[in-house]
Amino acid sequence: MAKKLTDKDFIVSMSDSNSLFGNFGGSVGQITLANLRHALNKDDEEVIESLAFYIDVNKPSTSGDATRVDVGGNMGMRQLWEDAAVSVLMDASGNYCPLNRDDNRFTADGEAVLNEDGTVRAEFAHADFMKIIPPTYGRVQTVTVGATTIHRLWLSLVPLPGGYIIPQQVVGKFKSSVVNAALRSLPGKVPEGNRNINAFFDLAQARSKNHGLANLDFRNHLLFYMMSKYGWRDSQNCKTADGTLVWGVGLDGTESKGSDKFICQKGIKTGHTLSLGDNDGKMAVTDADGTTVHGVSVAGFENPWGQYWEMVGGLCSVGTDVYCWRSNIVPASSPTAETFNSIEHVLLTRSTSAAWGMNIIASENGQGVYMIPKQSLSGVSYSDYYSYTESGQVWLFGGPSGSATVCGLATGYSEYAWSDLYAACSPRLAYYGPLNRVTTSRFKQLAS
To answer: 423 in helix, strand or coil?
Structure first.
């Protein structure tokens, strides 16, 4: 009498030509180990899931809430990716020493960097307060979820098969100020406004030829960080698992009592969130009327929405086309399509109406997710604001005081001409050169 399948002997090894029986689409069949391995790793799925975490940027959340976002994959890698970014003091030549992760008022080895009034101690006055974001590897994968085919963003600290790389970023922790005719990232300063993009870029270049303005990669990073960590698209209403607001309104003007909210909050000095280190949260600060309001820290970056708009480099619209580049260049005059013939770039599209379907490129050339609204998308909302005019070329993000609930990480404004200056706009300093880590004592010596 034949044995039942469950009575058969166990084996301890298999060759590629051996096969397994199973139910395949409602029919009993067999598959070789080699083909099973291939099926399990279709579209590199098995490898990617072990190395990366994902964000379904353009897919409605399975929660049914349009302001939520589905994430998954290797969340241990997501934490490693977050932890790999480090806040630093950095001089004009790229020499840097790390700050304490839990309190950026101190170096990593415990030395205080601020005076009692919140300004920088003399021995660190040559430093900008920056954060180094490590190179990030991505892959845009086409997957089927239920009956829908989507583009899924995977991110990791290690290269992914068929993927791409987001270069290392070094970005100011604060909106920029001007000291000795150079753009700086310093605490205890009122952000600089009322200049056009070329003037800001020239001030950055006065710091060093390796300095420039933060670009779209930075704004993308903030959104990837929030969405992957908390599963939210809406920064002002983003909550932890127990329902606690992570940030709240920030410097969007809501908490000020005066009639002109920007006037109330524009003079608030930088540095009020340094005690939070690289952690998320909010800190009380006083506006011009003496009212207590709150600035926010997103992964150690102060007020990426509220108070002033943030102007970015590496991004320019010509009609509905959006040119996105990573080189440290800002065209000297109003760009045309021909301007970018000599600048390596990715061509994106901007929506002509309120929309939250972002630009995603799955092909090898320019592969990536670019958080520029492209199309209407049902079931997806950031609860933020997007505004467009056909002649607008410069891109502003975040929103200023007075914009209230329309402020947020995804808020985008594409209405100003290249030469326009705007009082309520301040960029972030960025550094595109080589880096050199030194000790705190050596960093202080470099001041002389």
So the answer is: coil
Q: Which regions of 157-291 does DSSP assign to beta strands (E)? A: 164-166, 169-172, 177-179, 182-184, 211-213, 281-286
In whole angstroms, what separates CA 343 from the centre of its chain? 23
- Looking only at the bridges linking them, the beta strands covering 164-166 and 148-156 are unpaired
Torsion of CA 164, 170, 174, 178, to 10 degrees: -130
The span from the CA of 410 to the CA of 346, in Å, is 20
Q: How confident is the model at residue 46 (pLDDT cuts 50, 70, 90)?
A: confident
Q: What value, to the nearest 5°, has the Cα angle with vertex 128 and ends 124 and 130?
A: 125
Asked whether residue 36 carries a pLDDT value surpassing 60, the answer given is: no
Q: State how far the Cα of 81 lies from the Cα of 77, in Å rounded to an integer.
A: 6
CA separation, residue 282 to residues 12, 131, 406, 440 (Å): 57, 18, 18, 28
Round to whole Å and give the CA distance between 303 and 300. 9
Neighbours of 285 (CB within 10 A): 18
Q: pLDDT at residue 233 above 70?
A: yes
Taking each helix axis from N to C end, the angle separating 216-230 and 75-83, rounded to the nearest 10 degrees, works out to 130
Average confidence score pLDDT of the chain: 93
Give the pLDDT of residue 41.
Answer: 45
Task: Measure the CA–CA gap between 232 and 66, rounded to whole angstroms.
Answer: 9
Handedness of CA 347, 425, 166, 204 (dihedral sign): positive
Residue with tokens 């009956």: 147
